[in-house]
Design goal:
The chain is mostly helical. It has a domain at 12-37. It contains one helix and no strands. It has one helix at residues 11-39. It is elongated and about 85 Å long. Residues 1-67 are annotated as: Disordered. It comes from Planomonospora venezuelensis. This is DUF5302 domain-containing protein. Residues 17-33 have a biased composition (Basic and acidic residues).
Length: 67
């Protein structure tokens, strides 16, 4: 039987893994910050702008011109 030893990782793959880990950690911090900011908000969103768009009056109908 042959002994199978894992090949040592190349420096490129270890640096890629490190970079991916850093990005994941940064993304987790960002998500955590967003959930904390929204926790104190009112309802669905803590937007400072309310009622920017009014209700739609009616459904628009498009008709082809004849003639």
């Amino acid at each position: 039987m042959s002994d199978v030893t894992p090949e040592p990782e190349s420096p490129e793959s270890s640096s890629e893994d490190e970079l991916k880990r850093k990005f994941r950690e940064a993304l987790e911090r960002k998500k955590l910050a967003q959930t904390e900011a929204n926790a104190g908000g009112r309802g669905k969103g803590a937007s400072k702008i309310h009622g920017a768009h009014g209700p739609v009056g009616g459904k628009r109908s498009f008709r082809r011109k004849s003639g």
